[in-house]
Amino acid sequence: SSHAVIWDQSINAGYNSDITGIRRDNATALDQRKSHTEMWTGAVRNDIVTIANGTNFTTPNIISVDNSSLIWGHNNGGLASPFLPAGSYFFTINPEEIQSVFQRHWKSQETGTIGTVTIEFDMSTVAGVGGVAGANDLNNIRLLVDADGTFTAGATSISPSFVDNTNDIVRFEHNFVAGTGFYFTIGSVDKWATPLPVELLSFDVSCYNNTVHLNWVTKSEINNDFFTVEKSLDGIEFYAIGKIQGNGNSNSTAEYQWTDNNPTNGTSYYRLKQTDFNGKSKLHSVKAISCDRFDNINVYPNPTSGAVNIDFGKKLNEVSIKINDVYGRTLMTENHKSLNTIDLEIKGESGLYFIEIVAKNGNQKVIKVLKR
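-> structure tokens emitted (372 positions)
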């Protein structure tokens, strides 16, 4: 009702995800004492933070000053943390050593006067020891408040006011003021009991030359012994086909790859299992892929006087066919959506030519043909 801007999107650039807040406005009968972000259905919470006015989270106090609000949003960072290895990457606050910091950071903006609030984090979906959701010991969590959003220097560390390790809830009490800043996140003082481990940045599967290539990237790793590549023909029953050594503890991006040299015709499924040094493991998302194999292709006659037939041995989906000469020049390109056989004419002088066949899923094969 005062026409005050209570959240400036440009000033808070980078923190405009899941914006919500608390506010009192007598003229409009607004008395919002506690808030969190929900989906439109109201069934799933988008963010893990709930803030209530005062120190009684269950029954929050009315905001004491009219036309006052505290609004907050986050940077859309992951619900995980990069590992900070021993040594200079640790930083000390009050005088504890912060060993890992959340990737999701929040920024708040205050209008009028808001005093102490209670900030609750629902950690039930956050991976902990062994990559298990809800396995963090929340007694080791600290609220980090900062004036510039870096959290490694000049930040304020606050111990929990309430911990419920059964329901994975941790709460803090704080008064956001200019002196300590309006940015906040959480960190851990024990990376082993409360690791806040990182999730995969990416996991991709592709077909190439009668093989399936798996590539995945981690942003950082905690206690990571190895990855197991698992395969399934039905998406239900999986079996191990490969093992890749992990980096143990790392705070830098790492790339991994594995090649399945015996792909299955039709759809197959792949997933990663990550195992810690303590033997605990975590399964990552399943990827499905369908690779048309070119095992039974027959090109005849070869040598040829110009005309050739390509027998694929089965019906294939969309493929691209090129004829290239020895200098790499493309003489012809054809695309076919469905076929068993095809007739081609190699138009050129006598010599060696290359028929390149590429399936829609990326699988490819090159066949040499001699023209007399």
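Confidence is low (pLDDT under 50) at residues 82-89.
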